[in-house]
Amino acid sequence: MISIVIAEDQSLLRGALAALLTLEPDIELLAQAQDGEEAVRLVKDLKPDVLVTDIEMPGLTGIEASEALRQTGSETRVLIVTTFARPGYLQRALQAGVLGYVLKDAPSEELANAVRRVAQGQRAIAAELAESAWSAPVMLTARERDILKLVEEGKSNKEIARTLSLSPGTVRNYLADATQKLGAANRIEAFQIARENGWL
């Protein structure tokens, strides 16, 4: 049997995923989490073979939950099930140690097979995204992402500098680099492009 924990903040979708996967004779659902922090706690306690998780959730995202588990040496493998068909999300997920990345509109048999592949330590990536995972360059550094998130919150360069313990000049340099990489006209357009492509 393959043991799983499901993490999804929308209860209707969480219930649908649980119902679909428990129909499979070789998959056992141990628990369900409504956010990333609860998912990490449940995985640590129950040690499932696979964590099936959404990306965007309150607290920790699915990617952040995967990173947190990897840092603790957890042997649970991670499968992301999401609506976001964005190369940026996929690349960040792969960097975080995620083995599977499938879309929520995939057929149920594809989802179950992805769980099986991930449980065996194999990659399971949606076909429509697999090529872009390797061809699209990693655009932004972690620091550039942090700064653009604060731009999105409406913070000025001085406020960002205080928040991140940087000088305003350093913040300006990071923003200039990020804006150039993204082909944006200004900092507002930079965070919009980054958000749309899954880099934030």
Q: For the record, what is the CATH homologous superfamily label of the largest domain?
A: Response regulator
Outline the biggest β-sheet.
6 strands, parallel
Average pLDDT reading: 90
Q: What structural category arises from helix and sheet content?
A: alpha/beta
CATH architecture label name of the largest domain: 3-Layer(aba) Sandwich
Count of domain modules: 2
Number of helices: 10
- Strands, count: 6
Low-confidence stretches: none
How far from one another are the termini? 36 Å
The arrangement of helices and strands along the chain is EHEHEHEHEHEHHHHH
Shape: elongated
- Assign a percent range to the helix content: 40-55%
* β-sheet strand percentage: 5-15%
How are the strands of the largest sheet arranged? 2-1-3-4-5-6
C-alpha Rg (nearest Å): 18 Å
CATH domain topology of the largest domain = Rossmann fold
What is the CATH top level name of the largest domain?
A: Alpha Beta
